[in-house]
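User: Let's play a game. I give you a shape written as tokens, and you guess the letters that built it. Ready? Here's round one.
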């Protein structure tokens, strides 16, 4: 009669151990959920960085391939003008209210 109870008790002990490991052991369910949240945040950040990289590569490609992008940068960032071109600067008087 004692041997009849050994298998169910052994199975119950194994089940209890597995449940403990699942809920409270190393790499438990709570760690798993936290890691999933972290991965989701990182995926969003990676998507933003990937978009930024694509924009930078497109800009680099424009600079290599055509002079229009170079000219636009020279005009906007460096204030350069072409020969025989006139540049007008409009200054507003900010002291008169």
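Assistant: Ready! My guess for every position:
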């Amino acid at each position: 009669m004692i041997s009849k109870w050994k298998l169910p008790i052994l199975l119950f002990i194994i089940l209890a151990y597995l449940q403990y490991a699942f809920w409270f052991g190393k790499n438990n369910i709570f760690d798993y959920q936290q890691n999933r949240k972290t991965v989701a945040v990182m995926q969003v950040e990676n998507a933003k960085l990937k978009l930024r990289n694509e924009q930078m590569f497109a800009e680099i490609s424009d600079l290599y391939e055509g002079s229009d992008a170079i000219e636009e940068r020279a005009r906007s960032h460096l204030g350069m003008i072409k020969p025989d071109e006139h540049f007008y600067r409009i200054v507003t008087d900010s002291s008169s209210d």
